[in-house]
Design a protein that fits this description.
The complex is a heterodimer of chains A (591) and B (289).
Chain A lengths: L1 H14 L2 H8 L5 H8 L3 H10 L2 E4 L7 H7 L5 E5 L19 H10 L5 E5 L5 H10 L5 E5 L2 E4 H10 L5 E3 L4 E3 L18 E3 L9 H9 L6 E3 L9 H7 L5 E3 L9 H13 L5 E3 L21 E4 L6 H8 L7 E5 L3 H11 L5 E5 L14 H10 L5 E6 L4 H10 L5 E6 L14 H10 L5 E3 L6 H10 L5 E5 L5 H9 L6 E5 L5 H6 L9 E5 L5 H10 L3 E6 L16 E6 L12 E4 L5 E2 L1
Parallel strand pairs in A: 1-2, 2-3, 3-4, 4-6, 5-7, 6-8, 8-9, 9-10, 10-11, 11-12, 12-13, 13-14, 14-15, 15-16, 16-17, 17-18, 18-19, 19-20
Antiparallel strand pairs in A: 20-22, 21-22, 21-23, 23-24
Chain B lengths: L35 H8 L2 H4 L54 E3 L3 E3 L33 H5 L7 E2 L17 H17 L10 E4 L8 E4 L6 H13 L18 H9 L6 E3 L5 E3 L7
Antiparallel strand pairs in B: 1-2, 1-3, 4-5, 6-7
The chains are: A alpha/beta (591), B alpha+beta (289).
Chain lengths: 591, 289
């Protein structure tokens, strides 16, 4: 009897139908779970790879297009990231790489049914866009986040050829804006638009084409206009799209005229589903009340380009009781953040940007007090990006104690190496408290005066930390050693202007294979150490970025300008520009 | 002699014990910190200390680049103030010449372009690196929203000189180019629209004279040309000029309201307050409302 059941169960395990497994796997959507599933056994690996529809490539050089298409033949949606994060701040020289064309070319052959492409920090040419538009008959979603290399001509190809397009989102990309006519290439028969984000475009798009487009898109949910769209025209669009959920204005300024105001207010109040607002360049405060009626429904508000003062900001924000995300300039000041803390109890994410980061003295009254107030008053706060000019350990400790649920904490004290302004001590204790209390912290950016001690805290307590950004901090290699020998979950580490050298890197070389990437610039890592790493760790690409000419022309002990190390299964890059050198196994210097 | 100290600062400019951070702009000073030259000034050379608004074409004395104003720490004025802190002052001569472009720098040093007839005050001498050529259009990358200019009840923080900007480190603070460019364009748009904005009724500007124990505020809208402004300022600061002011001279031309109040109250002291830049301002210049 017993043996019967055991044979029965083994039989079942062996003949468990693939279709059933596939069906089960279809409920597993997270990439890491999918990856785990594929490691269970060979048959699961096979089944999983045939039914994976969505792939995320965190570093375009970690894997090759060929490897991707060979393993996953049925992909419908791809997301690829290119340049390292510090490229956002001009630390990666022009021409470094991250070109998407090879990927598009490979996928054009392998994935005729591809529907979605999402790219971040990649170089996208007009040719790539044209290839996309002609290769995938069912193409629906194009998101280009912080990309560059294309012009409005490329957009015209997308508009003309992608009959099934639903999403065109150009967030913060740099577009060579030749003309606004590209929008008119969308055929009149095309009515499937769901989301359009052209906020980054400089020149005016044809407004009548835009109006007609909006009018024939009943599924339009997100519309983010560019600055060139004037305020008087907004109500035309809003009236044609009362179903909008997210809306970004253009320049929000005009001579105050009662008819314009009442049209606008009426149009806004007609959008009953509106949850998110953005845009607001050049705000004329008198027009702000036009959105008051939408405030109670808003969950997301991006005022980070709005140069309006604290009183106007307070009036606005105090009505947004359901606000979950606020991006704002430091004009809000401490007093505005007090009001935010009092009114917005559902706030999850706060970003405060500096209105004038290049002046020594504060131009607004925004200090650490504002952030402390929000940490006290907003129980759901989990993500913070805060630029300010003074900070204290006491404030950081308070924030940590108030908000142990923080997941992302990025603090930028504008003056490098600024100490606790009250005690003049380093801010080690403050940041230490953050990593200690916020046990779910996944992302941390440091600033201010910091010794090696803060890295000891981070290394030992930052167990879930995945991304760490360090600038102008630390005293010696010990600091870097603490991080590399701790931080079990670390995936991305980016460092600039710190006195970290060879010792910590070489002592923790193996750690680098467990991470996606390491960036170090203006540190003290010698070329010799880079060569050693490149030789010893074949599954890492060790790339030296140095615009002074070949590192071979200088002594090996000479520190490199910039260093980018990442794990890869694709071997060394083949598209390196002249200022990038890679070390391969036989320590040959490859350019 | 019972001349109130604050009216007779000449000769009291012993070396200032205030600190001066190196990247603050040192106001061009009309009196040097030590020496016989100073004494000479006291006695003989009124020109050195006299407030001059040089309209285009007028001659102006060489300003000594040097340490400036001393605030002798008298009780009436409270603790020594650090003139360097935040308040960039240097009510220097109006810029020569052909250009009518004057720009008020506001609020920790932004430039607010007032359209036609704007004024540039730039200190001569030690200038934290931001010496602007007066004849050019000034293009500091950032300017506050026009609202700053028009505050009535809280005095607009407009200073007569340029701010200290840091030498910029690449990629720091970490702000994306998209945002940097957007803010830069904000600035130029704002400076165009300042005049166009629905007005408050006045435009207060802080004025300082080197060596004066406190600053004044003038409402630019009260004047319709530079000549008027110039003479008003002369009158305003005349009491600081040696020999012209005693507490009991009602016959003086151009008594300001506050001077009158002093006289009425027969007080040897004037009321001052410290504003948010750390400057001492004479009470009464900005209307109560």
């Amino acid at each position: 009897y017993l043996s019967n059941t055991s044979t029965l169960s083994t039989k079942m395990a062996k003949s468990f139908p693939e279709e059933v497994l596939e069906h089960v796997f279809s409920f597993i959507t997270s990439d890491s779970d999918r990856n785990a599933v594929s490691l269970v056994c060979k048959s699961w690996y096979e089944i999983e790879r045939w039914c994976r529809k969505r792939v995320f490539v965190g570093n375009c050089y970690a894997v090759s297009p060929r490897i991707l298409t060979r393993r996953f033949p049925e992909v419908r949606s791809v997301e690829i990231k290119g340049k390292p994060h510090f490229a956002d701040f001009n630390l990666v020289p022009e021409g470094w790489g991250g070109c998407v064309y090879p990927w598009i070319s490979a996928m054009a052959g392998a994935y005729p049914w591809l529907e979605e492409i999402r790219l971040k920090r990649m170089v996208v040419s007009d040719e790539a866009l044209e290839l996309i538009s002609t290769s995938f008959c069912n193409f629906k979603v194009l998101v280009l986040s912080s990309c560059e290399g294309f012009s409005t001509d490329g957009l015209a190809s997308i508009a003309a050829n992608c009959r099934e397009l639903r999403v065109l989102d150009l967030r913060e990309s740099e577009v060579d804006d030749l003309s606004g006519h590209w929008l008119s290439h969308f055929p009149d028969t095309w009515t499937s638009l769901v989301s359009l984000n052209i906020a980054c475009l400089g020149s005016e798009v044809s407004f009548s084409a835009l109006e007609r487009l909006v009018a024939r898109s009943p599924n339009l949910r997100t519309l983010r206009l560019n600055r060139a769209v004037s305020l008087e025209k907004l109500h035309n669009l809003l009236c044609r799209a009362p179903q909008l959920v997210e809306f970004g204005t253009g320049a929000y300024s005009s001579e105050l005229r009662p008819d314009v105001f009442s049209n606008l207010a009426g149009a806004f109040s007609g959008c009953k589903q509106l949850k998110g607002l953005s845009g607001f360049w050049d705000v004329v405060p008198a027009y702000l009340p036009a959105i008051y009626l939408t405030c109670s429904g808003l969950t997301s508000l991006n005022l980070s380009y709005a140069t309006i003062q604290s009183p106007d900001l307070v009036k606005l924000v105090s009505q947004c009781h359901n606000l979950q995300r606020l991006w704002v300039l430091d004009y809000i000041e401490d007093i505005g953040l007090d009001a935010l803390a009092a009114s917005c109890k559902h706030l999850q994410e706060l970003r405060v940007f500096p209105s004038d980061p290049y002046v020594v003295d504060p131009n607004v009254s925004l200090t650490e007090r504002g952030l402390v107030a929000v940490s006290e008053g907003c129980p759901k706060l989990q993500s913070v990006l805060y630029f300010c000019r003074q900070m204290s350990n006491a404030a950081l400790v308070a924030i940590a104690r108030n908000r142990p649920n923080l997941v992302c904490f990025r603090l930028c004290i504008i003056e490098p190496r600024a100490p606790d302004y009250l005690t003049l001590e380093p801010l080690d204790a403050g940041f230490g408290a953050i990593v200690e209390h916020c046990k779910e912290l996944r992302r941390l950016s440091l600033s201010g005066l910091l010794t090696d001690r803060v890295f000891e805290y981070i290394g030992t307590r930052g167990r879930k930390l995945e991304m760490l950004s360090i600038a102008f901090a630390g005293e010696s290699d010990l600091g870097l050693h603490h991080v590399l020998s701790g931080c079990e979950s670390l995936r991305k580490l980016e460092i600039r202007d710190c006195p970290f050298g060879d010792k910590a890197l070489l002592a923790n070389a193996a750690k680098l294979e467990t991470m996606r990437s390491l960036w170090m610039s203006s540190c003290s890592v010698s070329f010799g150490a880079c060569k050693l790493l490149g030789q010893k760790l074949p599954r890492l690409n060790v790339e030296v970025i140095d615009e002074r000419g070949s590192p071979d022309s200088r002594p090996e002990s000479c520190p490199v300008e910039k260093l980018y190390i990442y794990r890869t299964v694709a071997g060394p890059r083949v598209d390196m520009p002249p200022f990038v050198w890679t070390i391969d196994e036989d320590a040959a210097l490859r350019v | 002699m019972s001349v109130p100290l604050e009216h007779d600062y000449i000769g009291l400019s012993e070396a200032s014990s205030m600190e001066r951070s190196s990247d603050k702009i040192s106001s061009s000073s009309s009196s040097s910190t030590l020496s016989t030259e100073e004494e000479k000034n006291n006695v003989l050379n009124l020109k050195e200390t006299e407030l001059r608004l040089g309209l285009p074409g007028s001659e102006s004395p060489e300003r000594k680049a040097g340490f400036g104003v001393s605030l002798y720490g008298t009780d009436s004025l409270g603790p020594l103030k650090n003139f360097g802190s935040g308040a960039k002052r240097g009510f220097s001569d109006a810029i020569n010449g052909s250009s009518d472009k004057w720009v008020f720098s506001a609020n920790g040093g932004y430039e607010v372009d007032l359209g036609k007839g704007t004024v540039l005050f730039s200190p001569r001498g030690g200038n934290g690196g931001l010496e602007k050529n007066n004849t050019q259009q000034c293009n500091l990358p950032r300017v506050p929203p026009s609202k700053h200019v028009e505050k009535q009840t809280s005095p607009a923080n407009e200073h007569a000189s340029a701010p200290a900007a840091k030498a910029q480190v690449v990629g720091w603070p970490p702000i994306r180019s998209f945002r940097k460019n957007a803010m830069a364009t904000n600035v130029s748009k704002n400076s165009d629209t300042v005049e166009g904005n629905p007005g408050s009724g006045c435009l207060y500007v802080k004025v300082s004279m080197d060596g004066a124990p406190y600053l004044r505020k003038v409402d630019l809208k009260n004047y319709c040309n530079y000549a008027e402004l110039s003479s008003a300022l002369e009158k305003m600061f005349s009491c600081f000029t040696l020999g012209q002011c005693t507490s009991g001279l009602p016959g003086q031309e151009g008594l300001t309201e506050s001077r009158l109040m002093d006289l009425l109250h027969g007080s040897e002291y004037v009321q001052t307050y410290e504003d948010k830049d750390g400057d001492w301002m004479l009470v009464g210049d900005v209307p109560w409302e």
